[in-house]
Amino acid sequence: xxxxxxxxxxxxxxxxxxxxxERKKYAAIGLQPIHxxxxxxxxxxxxxxxxxxxxxxxxxxxxxxxxxTIQVLERxxxxxxxxxxxxxxxxxxxxxxxxxxxxxxxxALDVFAQAENALAIKKYATLGDALNSxxxxxxxxxxxxxxxxxxxxxxxxEVDSHYxxxxxxxxxxxxxxxxxxxxxxxxDIADD
Length: 192
Prior knowledge:
This protein is mostly helical. 50% of the residues lie in helices and 11% in strands.
């Protein structure tokens, strides 16, 4: 059961890190993650699924949120709308050339792909090992703090059968060593 909890926490941390990096990347171009999610969906859907209602249903959003998002994307020139030739009340959405170009540029910068490539060349005994490696690659790629636990830190030391943090020069209890730390530096990169 503990291994399952640890796996879930790794997935959660990877997701948080990826979303954080996406928000930074999108903010730099004046967009929010929802804007890119809509563009991505529309780049992959067929003609009967390219309506505002389908976007709302697919992403689990309200029609109002989708309507506002579509307006932003249209104003920025990333999206075009057209009326259905059979039923003029039905609106179809499509990426403009700028929208397609934007998605292509963002895909080229995908940090997750770098971590996935690093995983592909190694064999792992457990899902947890693979996720730990992926998380570490994402953290290195994005220069993110690791927030790891003490016994995996370069500053963790055992002195006279007691634990100690060499960075803060303080003793650690067993429960201290099981909590995440902002000052964590992975022992496997101590030479950096």
